[in-house]
Specification:
The termini are far apart. Strand 4 and strand 5 form a beta hairpin. The protein has a six-stranded mixed β-sheet with strand order 4-5-15-10-11-14, sandwiched between helices. The protein has two domains: 231 residues, Rossmann fold (3-Layer(aba) Sandwich), CATH 3.40.50; 119 residues, 3-Layer(aba) Sandwich (Rossmann fold). It contains 19 helices and 16 strands. 44% of the residues lie in helices and 15% in strands. The protein is of the alpha/beta class.
Length: 477
Amino acid sequence: MRYVSTRGAAPTLGFEDVLLTGLARDGGLYVPETWPVFSVAEIRALAGLPYGEAAARVMEPFIGDALDEGTLLTLVRDAYAAFDHAAVAPLKQLDERTWLMELFHGPTLAFKDFALQVVGRLFDHVLTKRDRRVTIVGATSGDTGSAAIEACRGRERIDVFILHPHGRVSEVQRRQMTTVMDKNVHNIAIEGTFDDCQDMVKAMFNDTGFRDEMDLSAVNSINWARIMAQIAYYFVAAAALGAPDRRVAFAVPSGNFGNVFAGYGAAKMGLPLAKLIVGSNRNDILTRFFDTGVMSTAEVHPTYSPSMDIQVSSNFERLLFEIFDRDGTAVAEAMTAFRETGKLDPGAAPWRKARELFEAARLDDSQTLAEIARLYRETGELIDPHSAIGIAAARLRRDAGGLRDDAVPIVALATAHPAKFPDAVEKASGVRPSLPARLGDLFSREERVTVLPKDLAQVQDLVRRHVALDTPVTENA
């Protein structure tokens, strides 16, 4: 398996190099040179397998000869062994057509664990094999940071620096990052938005001198390995509900577009998907694109679903590459114009191509709270605000084209444990969700974080100093 950049000007790489590189040197994102396609028999054979074994089968074509089959299976099984639910990603039926796939039973209570527990082990394997050390820099709107830290903490060949928007993540999300005291973990709170954090990470990668000096790598969803690992749970859920002999739809709360693009990848691999429904909060750039055909940035508004408070969805570039018929030059020109003007209009034909699979819906905060309350009242299930948006989007779009057939089940992805957002859940339902016992002392743990202004030079200086010293950042929170 070889990988190409969405902007067409970076070297074609194998899996190991894509894993360690993260962002392509032309500023693009890596995607498979060709999509592997599963046969009907191969999809059918996934039903009933333990999650780790099914996931390893889905990931294997993307890894090629970088790992032998037995090593991959061992690594993936180990990644999911400590999840709190025996099924790893259990399915619950909410009504006659809607199912909930719980993706929050990992160590940090969010769907990011599904990818990052695998990615951390892949990094360990490849870095040991190559006798290398890397510096991981990442941006988080809430959940990626803690999942990345949990996956990389204590690993001798990795320093990890995570940027989050100061005061714009929940207290649970923040503490899951800032209470990790391993010396290779460094938390930086940026006085700005998630988009500002993400821009800084991309700028560090695009500064080739700094990138090479620090040996930068990434665990954000700009890293292809993240998408690869997330594709697996689409196959697992669909196979459990009758695929490939039955079409299945998915509803996905999305801000950065990585999770739902994994669903698109599953469709490219032969999984018979009826629709992918994108759920947005007030920061609805994705829904506006699918409604109008134009992507235009706007002010970022804080909401009860902070992981989706995003106006520049970095993984959308991977979809753009596909709907532009894999024309890297056209993607590069479109992304340059988007960065300069805040507007991206791919044209009518590419937009129609995207609409063949995608639907979208938006919810504001009051509607999100109402959905949490409705579900608790009708089913007894407590859900977090992000998952509520996915479930509501499924309900709002269940009669869209391709979904009018009552036989098509819709799987809504539950992306975070309700206890990660206890204030919103309690406000909606009257019930304050509790953290699992293993996190019971989270609010009494010591925190360590550095607060910095929105200044790239200061962030780069901090990274440079602490990579050299191999010491944790100084607390000033």
